[in-house]
UniProtKB/TrEMBL annotation:
GO MF: transferase activity
UniProt key word Disulfide bond: no
Protein name, as recorded: Glutathione S-transferase 1-like
Domain GST N-terminal: 15-102
CDD domains listed in its UniProt record: GST_C_Ure2p_like (cd03178), GST_N_Ure2p_like (cd03048)
Record Pfam families: GST_C (PF00043), GST_N_2 (PF13409)
Family: Belongs to the GST superfamily.
Keywords for the protein's UniProt record, in alphabetical order: Transferase
Lineage: Eukaryota, Viridiplantae, Streptophyta, Embryophyta, Tracheophyta
The keyword Transferase is assigned to this record: yes
Length: 230
């Protein structure tokens, strides 16, 4: 860990474990849930984005984009330490490292990855904008057209997800994967922290809600949603 400046700001008590630098935001909990689901030994460090800690030089040395989450795996490929950022990349890395939550069949593997990218490229950015314009500073804007745009797009995306989940227990059918792990926190956050349940007409999407409740019933998901605690 001495090769990583981030360890100077957030010292590792267990340097032999995966080091997680995060906060329990919808992006952050993807990785904490995955770590809890896989059972990999890890140590969580709270990066307080409210205090702009993700833009400290030590963190930027690990993720120059200044966003959580990020990890350092002291036992990366070839037994060498590996630092990673971007939650989707971390999910894929941990899935391949453990052989869990990513199908071995090549076709199903790529189908799972496409749904991870669907979350990364669409659900995350659009739901996040709803949160900004509905709950945070954006709600003070006199022009309500941006909020309407993101609300409508979020409804459309919920419809896409609802269609996929019709007749399916999980996004990939009967197999729980990183596609679910990537998406659960964002849907949960939309109707809880962002308080947008009525705004996006969430209750119209019965298949999405049934899937969310199944996900929230998983003990690893419940633990991961609180790590690292605000």
């Amino acid at each position: 860990m001495s090769a990583f400046p981030v360890a100077r700001r957030w010292p590792a008590q267990h340097p032999e474990r995966i080091q997680l630098y995060s906060l329990n935001t919808p992006n952050g909990v993807k990785v904490s849930i995955m770590l809890e689901e896989t059972g990999l030994p890890y140590e969580a460090h709270l990066v307080d984005i409210g205090k702009d800690e993700s833009h400290l030089p030590e963190f930027l040395a690990l993720n120059p984009n200044g966003k959580i989450p990020a990890i350092v795996d002291p036992h990366g490929p070839g037994g060498k330490p590996l630092g990673l950022f971007e939650s989707g990349a971390i999910l894929m890395y941990l899935a391949e490292k453990t052989g869990k939550f990513l199908p071995a069949d090549p076709a199903r593997r790529w189908e799972t990855i496409q749904w991870v990218f669907f979350q990364m490229a669409s659900i995350g950015p659009m739901f996040g904008q709803v949160g900004f314009f509905h709950k945070y500073a954006g709600r003070e804007y006199e022009d309500k057209r941006p909020l309407a745009r993101y609300v409508n797009e979020s409804k459309r995306l919920l419809g896409v997800l609802d269609g996929r989940l019709a007749g399916h227990e999980w996004i990939m059918g009967d197999e729980y994967t990183i596609a679910d792990i990537a998406t659960l926190g964002w849907v949960n956050n939309l109707i809880t922290w962002y308080e947008a349940r009525e705004l996006v007409e969430y209750d119209r999407f019965a298949h999405v809600d049934a899937w969310l409740q199944r996900g929230l019933a998983r003990p690893a998901v419940q633990r991961g949603l609180k790590i690292p605690s605000r």
